[in-house]
Design a protein that fits this description.
This protein has about 250 residues and is α+β, with helices and mostly antiparallel strands. It has helices at about 1-30, 35-50, 100-105, 110-115, 150-160, 185-190, 190-200, 245-250, and strands at about 60, 65-70, 75-80, 125-130, 140-145, 165-170, 175-180, 210-215, 220-225. It has a nine-stranded antiparallel beta sheet, sandwiched between helices. The longest helix is centred in the first third of the chain and has 31 residues, at about 1-30.
């Protein structure tokens, strides 16, 4: 009898564990789709039916993206596609007919200045896209925010040596592959395509990569790419190069 009771207790506990795991998975799915839900259930329908992008700052249906004020940081914005594109690993981003979301995100930096109430020098701005393991949301989102002051100083020191050739550079706590791109180059080819084309093996494992973009002299941009390395506790989150508190601006004001 006691043996049977132990079996029943074991089965009941197993059932509770399975149910609990299922609840956790469901909760994670709901939380990881939070941005997608805002885009698909609020911003786009409001724009279509009321010509009002709220809660987004803007909805551009022609180019297929929205701009949303992020809840973190006084000036951080996000650019997100209006279609379901999970993240950097999505094959749609390597399609030449897909909108160049990174170029559009750089153009959208003016929302930061509008909120700040004065002009923001491009040297203080950075974009970032995190890897599949370095993010919490399963909808592509490009962080439009401020660059860390120490990373700005590092890039200024490297500026004259950066070219179209990739080179290994230590930025913060991780080693990045860095190259310079002109304004026209970033418009003609999105960083997603450039990374897939130029970094060996990247096309087959894009989900392991993360990148940031920041200004250099002579109207060039620094493209900074990091690959996941879990042995070094590096999930590949180039957002680490940004400062959502915008200390660069506070120091300059």
């Amino acid at each position: 009898m006691q043996g049977r009771r132990r079996i029943l207790i074991t089965v009941a506990l197993a059932g509770l564990i399975v149910t609990g795991c299922g609840s956790v998975a469901l909760d994670y799915k709901q939380r990881s789709d939070a941005l997608w839900n805002i885009v698909s259930e609020k911003c786009v329908p409001n724009q279509l039916h009321h010509n009002d992008p709220t809660p987004c700052r803007m909805v551009d249906l022609h180019n297929g993206y929205v701009v949303l004020k992020d809840r973190n940081g006084p000036l951080q914005y996000l650019l997100l596609p209006v279609e379901k594109i999970t993240g950097i690993e999505s094959p749609e981003l390597l399609n030449p007919y897909t909108s160049n979301f990174v170029a559009e995100a750089w153009r959208a930096r003016h929302f930061m200045a509008q909120r700040w109430g004065r002009k923001i020098n491009d040297s203080a701005v950075a974009l970032s896209v995190n890897s599949q393991t370095g993010r919490t949301q399963n909808q592509l989102h490009i962080h439009i925010s401020c660059l860390r002051a120490d990373i700005r100083q590092r890039l200024d020191g490297l500026d004259s040596s950066l070219s179209a050739e990739w080179q290994s550079v230590e930025l913060g706590d991780n080693v990045y592959q860095v190259r310079a791109v002109t304004r026209d180059e970033i418009k003609r080819m999105s960083p997603f395509v450039r990374i897939a084309n130029e970094l060996p093996g990247a096309r087959d494992e894009m989900g392991k990569y993360s990148f940031a973009v920041a200004a250099l002299s002579n109207d060039r941009r620094a493209l900074m790419v990091v690959k996941r390395n879990l042995l070094l506790l590096n999930p590949a989150s180039a957002e680490e190069l940004q400062d959502h508190r915008c200390q660069l601006l506070n120091a300059a004001s």
